[in-house]
Amino acid sequence: MTFKVFILCVVATSFAAQYTDKYDDINLKEIVENKRILLSYANCVLEKGKCSPEGKVLKDHIKDAIETGCKKCTDAQRTGTETMIRHLIKYEPDIWNELATKYDSTGEWRKTYEDEARKYGIL
């Protein structure tokens, strides 16, 4: 492999190492305050309903994000993830439990995220 090809591969891999930031400015407050919208996203990632374009992106990356501690997330995505997890644990435990069962059947990651939520006073 030539050096130029190697560099192109490294550059391509580094861009692929982060999720798209296309939806980083999504209004999470609107989602958590509107049960219909929240359920729409939940049903999308639970494969119980249709997905909006941003919901599809979420569904496509949620398992990887959970398993890697959101390593490929932008700062906005990390903050948004924390906001949503705290909200779901505190106000929507049924949705949280369904998501946890689907994407973390062993409970490994659920414990991590629930421990993090406890730091914010969310039980």
From TrEMBL:
Q: What is this protein called?
A: Ejaculatory bulb-specific protein 3-like
Instruction: Give the UniProt keywords, A-Z.
Output: Signal
Query: Which is an annotated Pfam family here?
Result: OS-D
Q: Which InterPro entries match?
A: A10/PebIII, OS_D_A10/PebIII_sf
Species of the source = Papilio xuthus (Asian swallowtail butterfly)
Q: Where is the signal peptide?
A: 1-16
